[in-house]
Amino acid sequence: MTKLVKLSMIGLSVMAFVGCNDTYSNTTEESKNTLKSLDRQVNYLTDTNGIALYTFDKDVLNKSNCDTECQKIWPLFEGANTTSEDLKTLDGSDHLAFRQHPLYFFHNDKAPGDVNGDNVKNVWHLVYAPENSNDTQTKFSEQKMVQSYLTDKDGRALYTFDKDEANVSNCYGDCEEIWPVYYGGDIATVPNGMQKSELATIKRDANRSKTGLLNQTTYQGKPLYYFASDNKVSGATKGDWVKGVWHLVELSAKKASETTVTTSPYTSEAAEKGKAIFTNPSKCASCHGVDGQTKPLGVDNVIARYGDAALIDKKLKDMRDNGNPNNQHSAMVNVAKGLSDEQIINLSAFVATLKK
After folding, report:
1. pLDDT of residue 11 exceeding 50
2. In angstroms, what is the C-alpha Rg of the chain?
3. Which of 214, 218, 212 is nearest to 197 (CA)?
């Protein structure tokens, strides 16, 4: 069992705040080799009449591979170039592409709200365009979909890169710093919608790697990455559709009216509020420093092992509601007792971002 410094504010088995002079043995058994999923509510791209638009996995960037017979089922979405950088015609045609991905209708969609083409043969997909996407020839759907996407064990979104090849990463140099590689080792648990047999490990090119990370997990032959601008926050998905070549790994999607949404409360906005609590001199920063770097909450011996905001939340509430069952540092227990449920959510979201 790995020896760590005792985590005073959230108990003996989680990492957030520790008594300044105590030690403890980690008793958390949750394996790091776990993949999870989160849900998000999103609108999809439509034409101006509200009819859904789709992309085709067998296309390549800026080129359609849907032939004449295919187009009888998947009619082309046609238009003209405008000032929009998101929507452009393919060379020599009126066929429009969203961020380099050709767009289509589905012949069985007859009215706004129809999404009968989504995930047909697992190669046709709705377009969950970023909210800042804008063109006069498209709009966002009025109804929302609930999309389930792949995350690591801490709820951090994982992405694929269109310019990779099967089981080969083409993200090196500066790309590695913006899109850190994900390696989960021997994955023991996966979420609904995927199989462990679909995962593998590839070796990265040591001569090209800037970070020195040479192992990378793949899903269905596609290397997996984080996005640095997600800031290690559970539920952040800022990397989806960046430059048209980075995408979340969708596991399923349903109309919001057909499912119960499970979303993470530990958002980037919550983390910002939690940072204000943590850095308050009368709260955590007086002992642990504004970034949790002051010993004994050093990232090398504590934060590097954790990052699960929900687990931090649970332990904080246990301290607040049940006093000092595990002999946590009394000052930290007093801080916990002064926190509301919302403040604990925010604080947990921030502390989780301190993980390496």
Report:
1. no
2. 23
3. 218
